[in-house]
Amino acid sequence: MKVLELKEVNKIYDSSEVHVHAVNDVSLEFSEAEFAAIVGPSGSGKTTLLNLIGGLDKPTSGKIFIDGTDLSSLRSSKLIDFRMRNIGFVFQAYNLIPVLTAKENVEFIMSLQKWEEKERDERTFELLKAVGLSERANSRPSKLSGGQQQRVAVARALASKPKFVLADEPTANLDSKSATTLLEIMEKLNHEEKITFIFSTHDPRVVKMAHRVITLEDGKVVSDDLRELPE
Amino acid sequence: MIWKIAWKNIWRNPVRSFVVIGSVTVGVFAGVFAIAFMNGMISQRVESAIDEEISHIQVTGKGFNLNNDPQITIPDISHTLSILDTVKGIRGYVERTIISGMASTASKSAGVQIVGINPAEDQKIFSLNKTIIEGTGGYFTKESKFNLALIGQDLAKELNIIRFLIDSAALSELVKEGVPDRILNKVSRFSGERFKNEKNFDKRMNDILLKEEISEYGQKIKRAAWSFREGSKLTLTFLDKDNNQVGAVFRLTGIYDTRNSIFEMSTIFVKNSDLKRLTGMNEKSFHQVILRLTDVDQTEAVTSELMDILPGLDVSNWKELQPDLAMMTDYVHEIYAFFMAIILAALAFGIVNTMLMVVLERTRELGMLAAIGMNRKKVFSMIMLESVFLSLIGGVTGMALGWIIVHLTARNGINFAQYAEGMEAFGYSAHVYPEIGADFFIMIAVMIILTGILSSVYPALKALKLNPIEAIRTE
Does B363 lie at the interface with A, CB-CB under 8 angstroms? Predict the structure, then answer.
């Protein structure tokens, strides 16, 4: 089942000082439960592409469809709501809410979506258990290691059962052991939850575990290798 | 969840939050206390005016108030009183005779209004009897074969009836009051010297005491030196019923102190029976009936009713007789609200500044929240709630502190004895009992919440303008 489709997407930054074709005529499709990595050198357009897919930025031309909905047809307020219900985000710097506990951080999106408390608790418990942090549910981010914070961020991204999760350099700030643990957890959740993961990364460990590797150069897709289809 | 995050957010930087809360606390406390003080002053002035000077409503002969013409009396007083008996809301009434005249002592004279009263009836609805200065006699309490007059403290000073004398009794009183020896030594230099008036006494004190010493002990010394001889005489001169000038000697039955210099200077109370005899007026002739109501809020309704049923008479209520007081009581809430609004507006700048810093510091976090789907309304609400929480914590603390201090000071009042002369010249007591009503606290609470909301608008709009992509990249 197709969850995401990009059709001839371009992003051009054009100012008096600079003209950059950050994303150049990119057309891609992502199906349910994919585990895909977008790779490429710095400045190749990975993060810009992720921002476009996540609805954080608008393409100069082309269309992006999420579960059949054209992102360009959504007004600003609708787009925010759409993002909340369909896309999970994992950031390089974790970006948890520092005043909330791990549990509350995971619950946050569900609470914005007005989930019932019981359902919310069950889902939070299930996800914290899945990322191996049920014992640290009541710890604030400042009491957690970088790896643990990123695991909470993954749990938060998955909380409202989005169509896919966008992870921008999720392992960049982690040591080797924490990065491996995080990747294993994400791969496991990818299988269990049937949620598509799309990473932008430089990390060879991520690339190694990805089932599909899309390589960008100067904003263009130069290769799209499918290594192994998810079950 | 938004409430929870907003609440937790304000404690992220406790020092900064406490600075804002502290400034709101101090501002609100100052506002509450200043308003309670003003309110106390105004209430006391209104109560004093109604209880001791003008009452709620006055009924007079048509045109009497224009020039106090003694010929204009209330026609058929019995009929008028019988009508008053049928009106609901009237607690009581008394008839008065009012004559303009001149009061003179051996050394001075002053124009006055001589008010003839029936003391026994008058004190049932009027509180003038409670304002008699201790040691000056009483409120027509002693039977006397002489004409008796009750005069105000300021008139007594003006007519040199009150004198000033430092004697052994005065010095003993000053010792009791804790006046130090160096001051006593200076004051005792004019021991035994009798000052005919306050001005001379003040001059002498200025000669021997330093300015600071007068400021600290002047009132105590003056109080101790205050001297009055019971039964002092004064002559009242006025026109009789045939417009012939008559004069009579009156003995002082007492001196009253309403803390309103203008009233004290101009009003002398005598017995109706004495005034009728001297003017030759009919016993049933009166110039004025003053009414007390059961509830001050009924003033306008009863006035209107009386104007309908007593078309041949003038009916005036206290608001018409003292429009300055009416304005203060009618617009008091607006004045207080305006005063608080100025204080809160000043505090709002501090809150806006703090909230702008909050937005600046949390740029990345706000970008993340927008990215993961927190809509503009919720971002705005979160910033607004933080601002309201800060304002409310400070506001409630300030109100509580204000309430406590108001109640503590209201027990014994605050005495500005050194400014008594100036305050009493405007009719205000120098001994102020701050007071404040619950409705006022509700008004302040609403204003504080509004301040919190308004203070958050600009910072919240700043937060809404953040571009999530750029905000997330912020270090």
Answer: no
Take residue B359 and report the two structure tokens written for it: 């937005």
Put simply, the chain A residues between 44 and 63 with a CB less than 8 A from any chain B CB are: 51, 54, 56-57
DSSP string covering A19-62: EEEEEEEEEEEEETT-EEEEE-STTSSHHHHHHHHTTSS--SEE
Q: Supply the pLDDT for residue B96.
A: 93
- Is the pLDDT confidence value at B10 over 50? yes
Q: Let me know whether B353 and B442 are in one domain.
A: yes
Q: Say if CB B170 and CB B225 are below 8 A apart.
A: yes
| DSSP 8-state assignment for residue B159 | T
Task: Look up the domain containing B85 and give its range.
Answer: 63-160+230-311
In contact, A185 and A21? CB cutoff 8 Å: no
Q: What is the pLDDT of residues B15-64, one digit of tens each?
A: 999 999 999 999 999 999 999 999 898 888 888 888 888 889 999 999 88
Q: Does residue B368 sit at the A interface (CB-CB below 8 Å)?
A: yes
Domains delineated in chain A: 2-226 (3.40.50.300)
Tens of pLDDT, residues B293-317:
998 889 999 999 999 998 889 999 9
Is B294 a domain residue?
Answer: yes
pLDDT tens, position by position, A101-110: 999 999 988 9
- In this structure, the number of other CB atoms found within 10 A of the CB of residue A133 comes to 21
Q: Which residue of A has its CA nearest to B12?
A: A99
Cβ neighbours of residue B147 closer than 8 Å, sequence gap 6 or more? B248, B249, B250, B251, B270, B271, B274, B278
Q: Domain tally for chain B?
A: 3
